[in-house]
């Protein structure tokens, strides 16, 4: 085990011998790290935090710290993190609250760039990117393969759909459609499908064509949202079904 002499590791913390804990790191007594994790330096991991394998945590990051919620009174809530995440400088990940389910979750293979914030009770999937200073308020749900651009605040209880791409500086106050390219020029709008990102992830021409048809119905046809969803359900393929289901279960409305 490689633990720098200046690191402070509380009794009770579980740290496998394969881990590296750098200078001036602080690890609380209820923290459990997975195999081959690296805490570069000046990292704080506290609370009931469970972390998977091969995560790299960069300097001045704080994980498992108390939520920024005035109702929180020290209840034993948690943070759960998967495998192979890259968490860059000055990222903050708050533990959950009893009113929000008690657990803040981060999946696997995510990149959280500098100054990103994951608030209490957020549920972040896998293969996501939170760019510099992306800020998730409490109870936000980020589905797999979504990208939240730099300086994007996401309002409480919003959902960002799978494979969505949010352009930098977009203020998100409603749910972001899966597969969409959503950005703020003068106002928040969905500008069709995230074609470049979907191609990079191996989406076939047939899948892209189906999604393009679905978004034409939703954004360009003279249909209200309910009518568009019924038409989207008639298209073949699971992507169209996923899109329709996302819209139907949205509680805050979707950005069109």
Quick overview of this protein structure:
The chain is α/β, with parallel strands linked by helices.
Instruction: Count every helix, treating DSSP H or I runs of 4 or more residues as helices.
Output: 4
Sum up the overall morphology in one term.
Answer: elongated
Biggest sheet strand line-up: 1-3-5-8-11-14-17-20-23-24-25
Kindly state the number of beta strands.
25
Fourth-tier CATH superfamily name of the largest domain: Hexapeptide repeat proteins
CATH topology of the largest domain, by name, is UDP N-Acetylglucosamine Acyltransferase, domain 1
Low-confidence stretches: none
Report how far apart the termini are: 52 Å
Report helical residue fraction.
Answer: 10-25%
Descriptive overview:
Strands 1-3-5-8-11-14-17-20-23-24-25 form an eleven-stranded mixed sheet. The chain has an eight-stranded parallel sheet with strand order 2-4-6-9-12-15-18-21, with no helix packed on it. It has a six-stranded parallel sheet with strand order 7-10-13-16-19-22, with no helix packed on it. The longest helix has 16 residues, at 205-220. It is an alpha/beta fold. The chain is 17% helix and 26% strand. α2 packs antiparallel against α3 (225-233) and α3 (225-233) packs antiparallel against α4 (238-249). The chain starts with a strand and ends in a 7-residue tail after the last helix. β24 and β25 (188-193) form a beta hairpin. The mean pLDDT is 95. It has two domains: 2-142, UDP N-Acetylglucosamine Acyltransferase, domain 1 (3 Solenoid); 201-249, no CATH class.
């Amino acid at each position: 085990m490689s633990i720098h002499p200046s690191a402070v590791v509380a009794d009770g913390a579980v740290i496998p011998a394969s881990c590296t804990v750098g200078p001036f790191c602080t690890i609380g007594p209820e923290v459990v790290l997975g195999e081959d994790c690296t805490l570069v330096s000046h990292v704080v991991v506290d609370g009931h935090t469970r972390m998977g394998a091969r995560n790299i945590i960069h300097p001045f990051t704080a994980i498992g710290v108390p939520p920024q919620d005035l109702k929180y009174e020290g209840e034993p809530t948690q943070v759960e993190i998967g495998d192979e995440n890259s968490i860059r400088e000055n990222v903050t990940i708050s533990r959950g609250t009893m009113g929000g389910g008690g657990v803040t979750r981060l999946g696997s293979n995510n990149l959280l760039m500098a100054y990103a914030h994951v608030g209490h009770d957020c549920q972040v999937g896998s293969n996501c990117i939170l760019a510099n200073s992306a800020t998730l308020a409490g109870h936000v749900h980020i589905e797999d393969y979504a990208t939240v651009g730099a300086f994007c605040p996401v309002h409480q209880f919003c959902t960002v759909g799978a494979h969505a791409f949010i352009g930098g500086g977009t203020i998100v106050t409603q749910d972001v459609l899966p597969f969409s390219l959503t950005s703020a020029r003068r106002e928040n709008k969905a500008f069709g499908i995230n074609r470049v990102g979907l191609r990079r992830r191996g989406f076939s021409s047939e899948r892209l064509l189906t999604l393009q048809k679905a978004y034409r119905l939703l954004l360009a046809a003279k249909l209200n949202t309910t009518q568009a969803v019924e038409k989207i359900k008639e298209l073949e393929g699971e992507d169209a079904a996923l899109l329709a289901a996302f819209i139907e279960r949205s509680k805050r409305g979707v950005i069109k």
